[in-house]
Amino acid sequence: MARRPYDLPPMTTLAAFEAAARHCSMKTAASELNVTPGAVSRQVKALEEELGRALFVRVHRGLELTSEGSELAETLALGFARTADVCRRLRSQTDTPSLTVGATTAFAGYWLIPRIGSFWQRFPDVTVNHAISDDPIDLRRGDIDLALRYGDGTWQGIRAIRLFSDHLIPVCSPDFAATHPGITAADLPDLPLLRMTGVDASWIDWDAWFAWAGVSGTSAQKRGRSLNNYTVVLQATRGGQGVALGWERLVTPLLDSGELVRLVDQAMPSPGAHYVIWDEARTPSRPMVQFCDWLQEQALA
């Protein structure tokens, strides 16, 4: 048998394992690779047999990586990311400079898109594509160059530049405020509250705001509705359907236009901040650097 280059197992086994490890799911990996879950499972089993080590532990909820599996998965992810980076740079030598920026619907709609025209004017040769989704963004896949994310700035395998912090303020429509005069923070739990569900753990909810404001013995579940999209939350708020927590930097245009008003004066400082992030395995391209610089200028404006 001919000796394999670099003494590596077959690339099909490595690719199948990396996808399964990244998702901790044979089924999701199979969907990504456009094969059957059984095919992924056979490739992973072949890799385990060649290495003589178990890479996964099968548990009732799915898969968990062993220590050996974690080490191999991290090494493969780094190698694939660097290879993808080189391929992107080679393509960009002949193609029009471009980048793809990921953001949530709310951040894109209320902060990024209203400002993006100034970037186009300054860098007319750079094409900016947008990947707008409220689902978690996996930068290792390589189809998104930069992402805008809220949090504490410490994510494994991620480089982050802090843009700005924020404040959380209770907001409602002018008509709603007119029919609820003299409201204090202690009165809010008795009003219909519009809240987010199905987002990452860093999102600030009503219970956190009440704890910060010193309103005890309350639960945001008492009244109101749950929605899983912040843009829809704000649409419902503008329609007079209740009170929402407004991220001040995002809702300022709605406050300035009079579509929303602050219901109480308290403004909770956000524990985290908004960041621009990218895969640490990547060497930032010229458009990525230009966009990051522009974002920081806009954050200070």
Report what the structure shows:
The protein is an alpha/beta fold and 301 residues long. It is built from 11 helices and 13 strands. The mean pLDDT is 88. Strand 8 (193-196), helix 8 and strand 9 form a beta-alpha-beta unit. The radius of gyration is 24 Å and the shape is globular. The longest helix has 26 residues, at 67-92. The protein folds into 3 domains: 5-89, Winged helix-like DNA-binding domain superfamily/Winged helix DNA-binding domain (Arc Repressor Mutant, subunit A); 96-165 and 273-300, D-Maltodextrin-Binding Protein, domain 2 (3-Layer(aba) Sandwich), CATH 3.40.190.10; 167-269, Periplasmic binding protein-like II (D-Maltodextrin-Binding Protein, domain 2).
